[in-house]
Amino acid sequence: MRMRNKPWAKEFIEQHPEIIIQNPENYKGKWNELFGNNHPLHIEVGSGKGQFIVGMAQANPEINYIGIELYDKVIVKALEKALEAGSPPNLRLLKINAEELEKFFKKNEVQRIYLNFSDPWPKKRHAKRRLTHERFLKIYESILVDEGEIHFKTDNRGLFEYSLVSMSQYGMVLQYVSLDLHANEPEDNIRTEYEEKFSAMGQPIYRLEAKFPK
Ligand code: SAM
Predict the structure, then answer these.
(1) Which of 28, 142, 150 is nearest to 96 (CA)?
(2) Catalytic residues
């Protein structure tokens, strides 16, 4: 993702601790207390500019959502969208690295993880950085409930093929696979920024749902 320098981003983020949680390690095992209910928790890893997670939070008020993003300059766009949407009470954002998810979430705390248009890292020597590499699947499993789900969308055929194999080898069960999501787009599909961009270029969108074993 190309980014211009935005020196104001950090300050703007600090002005909105009600949405971008400061010291998120304090909430490990306690996210339901923060949301004030026992609704399921779904997280998006690599939420970018936030169109998906904000849209999901608005469409599904009975589910709690947390968007996770690595960069200030990107998450600030998601913050703007959340504010424009009236700060949905079931939405929070975290500026953290997915490698550290276990610092912030306990086993059984998360019901579902969304991965949308994750960076493909096409070179073999960078395979470990792919968010569907075994080392990330282990991390996801350690915070999800038993039979917790991963829902994954991408335009990148290579990453999709890799992910099918990686998840199968890990022992996950595939529940849904589409090689052209938009050919028969479900009414409740919320498009991400990348999804709109690649779809407009005529690229098929791949999607899968998989669950971890018991
Ligand atoms: N999901 C958005 C979409 O579909 O429009 C953004 C896709 S963009 C290609 C991938 C995003 O994942 C980037 O914003 C990047 O900063 C973020 N990302 C990559 N690796 C990450 C990690 N280890 N932890 C958190 N976010 C990460």
Answers:
(1) 28
(2) 119
Instruction: In whole angstroms, give the CA distance from residue 45 to residue 67.
Output: 6
| CATH number for 64 | 3.40.50.150
CA torsion through residues 102, 106, 108, 110, sign: negative
Q: Do 64 and 90 meet the contact criterion of CB atoms below 8 Å apart?
A: yes
- Cβ atoms of 54 and 78 within 8 Å: the answer is yes
Q: How far is the CA of 131 from the centre of ligand 1 (A)?
A: 9
If one counts the domains in the chain, the total is: 1
Cα of 120 to ligand 1 centre, how many Å? 10
* ipTM (interface predicted TM): 0.99
pLDDT digits (tens, 9 = 90+) for 81-98: 999 999 999 999 999 999
Please state, in angstroms and rounded to a whole number, the distance separating the CA atoms of residues 68 and 20: 10
The contacts of residue 170 (CB under 8 Å, 6+ apart) are 134, 137, 212
